[in-house]
Design goal:
6 strands; alpha/beta; Rossmann fold
Length: about 210
């Protein structure tokens, strides 16, 4: 059959709904049944990536979704490691609960300190974010060094993030950095393995936000 015969003509507002219907149909066909609390998050990650491997690799700490939602309801901020993730988060939905999204990567002071210390901007930006005056969810989609910095600060015992979404993508230190976060007592949503990305980090944040509407 020609691909033209398979084309669905949908209005823009209907495309996302149909996409989720297709995801649900395919999950059922594959015999995959997601835990209820995690379902919409995993589905939105699949929606943004078209990758069903996330049904196996996304890891949730105990009561992770409930904890993240309560943080948002109580006005927590979200900190990302890329401006791409920052752009993808629905900031209007977040602000409705009193929260604000941040990314410090482009700050001049971050770049200067990173150069002076011989480290990454991602690591320095985590230090800067730790000084926020309110609880924050850290959504890391690009830089494993951001997760490593968070882990080191947790281990020092003086500070720890309220929640970590750890989904950086890549080959160097990515898998190890994710495993480090999963060894802490900080609640998390982490994608094991090499896959992830800023789009995935933003998708997880948005799934939490949209489920609170």
């Amino acid at each position: 059959m020609s691909i033209l015969h398979k084309t669905e003509y949908l209005l823009p507002e209907e495309i996302e709904k149909r996409s989720f219907e297709i995801i649900s149909e395919e999950l059922k066909h594959r015999g995959i049944y997601l835990p209820r609390e995690e379902e919409m998050i995993t589905k939105r990650v699949i929606h943004t990536s078209a990758d069903f491997d996330y049904t196996e690799s996304l890891c949730y700490s105990k009561d992770a979704v409930k904890i993240a939602k309560n943080l948002i309801l109580n006005g927590a901020d979200i900190v990302t490691d890329t401006n791409m993730a920052l752009a993808g988060i629905n900031k209007k939905a977040l602000s409705a609960f009193g929260g604000k999204a941040h990314c410090f990567m482009a700050d001049d002071s971050v770049a200067r300190l990173a150069k002076e210390r011989g480290t990454t901007r991602a690591a320095v930006s985590m230090e800067m974010a730790s000084k926020l005056a309110k609880p924050a969810i850290f959504a890391i989609g690009n830089a494993p060094t951001a997760l490593i910095q968070l882990y080191e600060m947790i281990q020092e015992g003086a500070w720890k993030p309220s929640f970590v979404i750890g989904v950086p993508v890549g080959f160097v230190n990515v898998e190890a950095a994710k495993e480090l976060i999963m060894e802490t007592d900080v609640p998390y949503i982490v994608n094991r393995g090499r896959k992830g990305g800023s789009n995935v980090a933003a998708a997880i944040c948005n799934a939490l936000l949209y489920d609170l509407k």
